[in-house]
Design goal:
The complex is a heterodimer. Chain A is α/β, with parallel strands linked by helices. Chain A has 12 helices and 13 strands. Helices cover about 35% and strands about 20% of the residues of chain A. In chain A, the strands form 2 sheets. Chain A has an 8-stranded mixed beta sheet with strand order 7-8-9-3-10-11-13-12, with helices on both faces. In chain A, strands 1, 2, 4, 5 and 6 form a 5-stranded antiparallel beta sheet that branches. In chain A, helix 8 links the parallel strand 8 (about 180-185) and strand 9 (about 210-215). The model of chain A has no long low-confidence stretch (mean pLDDT about 90). Chain B has 9 helices and 10 strands. Mean pLDDT of chain B is about 90; it is low at about 265-269. In chain B, helix 3 runs parallel beside helix 5 and helix 5 (about 160-175) runs parallel beside helix 6 (about 190-205). The chains are: A alpha/beta, B alpha/beta. The interface of A and B includes residues 192, 220, 244, 250 and 257 of A.
Chain lengths: ~325, ~270
Amino acid sequence: MSSTRLLEVNDLRVSFSTDAGEVLAVDGASFSVGAGETLGIVGESGCGKSVSALSILGLIADPPGRVLPGSSVRLRGEELLTAASARLRDVRGGEVAMVFQEPMTSLNPVLRVGDQVAEAVRRHTELRGDAVNERVVALLDRVGIPDPASRARTFPHQLSGGMRQRAMIAMALAGDPELLIADEPTTALDVTIQARILTLLDDLRRERNMALVLITHDLGVVAQVADRVAVMYAGRIVEEGPSANLFSTPAHPYTIGLLRSIPDPDKPGDRLEAIPGSVPSPHAWPPGCRFHPRCTVALDRCRTDNPSLMQAPATRAACWLVEEDL
Amino acid sequence: MSEPILRAEGLEKRYSTGRSGPAGLRRPVQVEAVRGIDLEIHAGETLALVGESGSGKSTTGRLLLGLEPPSAGRVLYRGRDLADFDRATSSMFRRRTQVVFQDPYGSLNPRHTVGGMLAEALTFHGLAFENDTSERVAELLALVGLDESASARYPHEFSGGQRQRIGIARALSVEPELIVADEPVSALDVSVQAQVLNLLADLQVELGLTYLFISHDLAVVRHVADRTAVMFEGKIVEEGSTERVFADPQHPYTRELLWSSPRPRAGVP
């Protein structure tokens, strides 16, 4: 089948057992990414965006986590959720690599940066001996680390936050991935550094025709680099579509509310249109549409019936109002 | 122009951070966190201090409140040097200037009920008698948009946004004139940030408060501040009306900061 996308996630459901009982962190998320494309997954704390990303690579600890039956994660058509663990280890850092928010906790503090990148090179390529070191220096150079040969001999704590994140990206590139999953890659960084890291990720995507899944709480970051955006709320994708459409013609009240909460540079000092209430906890997700208690335009059926994604003017949105309007 | 509430003159702060260098040649390392700052905060305005991590903005906030002594320079409160304050003046100054922190959870005592915490602040500063705080506590909770029932609950029972409201209520309990808000919405979800920003704006009008707003978020600063001072490596590199700083930035660093700041594409209906 030629229409197979690089990554296809279907009806992903992930639950966790906690002291307060079983909670569903992700409840039926479906999304896909094509080669060379950037998908932004946006949402606030606890919406399930990181759990979704970790599930792709089978990185959810079981127990307490569990990917529920019926979920599917396909890479070039190959089901990863049921793949043998040896195959998954090859995929991780090979075809699919991942970078996290805080590089300091993902890098080993007692190993030199170059040795950590070298380990990834040896694990995922045929290179050995001096060729490994050459590749390491080339990778560090490519991600914009100045004086890469000597920086390779430093320890993570000797690098700035931005440089550490670059080193993490170099490690991720070691296996020449087709898909890079970046979970809040710039959240811990200052804005000037953040802009440079995003530009780097975008350049790498283009020159390698690599797909990028960018997980973030920051709509500004998504607007800057994503081709398509999925907005998550309380474990579900509530709106999805091309980035330009989602920002110009959002259909879901939550997306609209999020965009309106951001101060408008043309109206400084005006009252902000805040979304009332706060993000619900997975322990207490409301019935029906999970956004309805905070929604100012909710209908009666929103309190009981859970809407699926349906075609809106420029996007797909999980909202009964979309159906009413059409 | 009227006399400023706070005025900083040639403010500097150096810290010693352990030692470094080869064995035998180790020396204490001095970090210059703040390197000569002049600043005025006038009654009723919101002054934003913008910068990235390590720029010295939070240290400047602490120096202005007298929470740390400067290495050089001085801070004047209504024309009087903080360093010359006697105990009584010091205590009055502490009451008139309050801080709202980024992480309300870290700054609220987990073992005290919200009501108990507010009552303690009231009695400590002699603003109410111990047996007569409940009315004022209820008033404070209403002021920040919390239900009266919040009084009997503990900090962990609240969401991040509600906890920030509690932090604001505690700051307000002692009737301050100046509030230093250090990244007050940075830890909050986007959908809740706007609620807290609106609350701060309402309180300013209602109570005639003056704000020093410390933040790395340019979109937020542009929204709330009358004047903006941009900090870089311990110095103020640019200062002016917020409108001017954003529309016509003069310093290269301000320009880079503005250019780097991500914004969603416009066009929300």
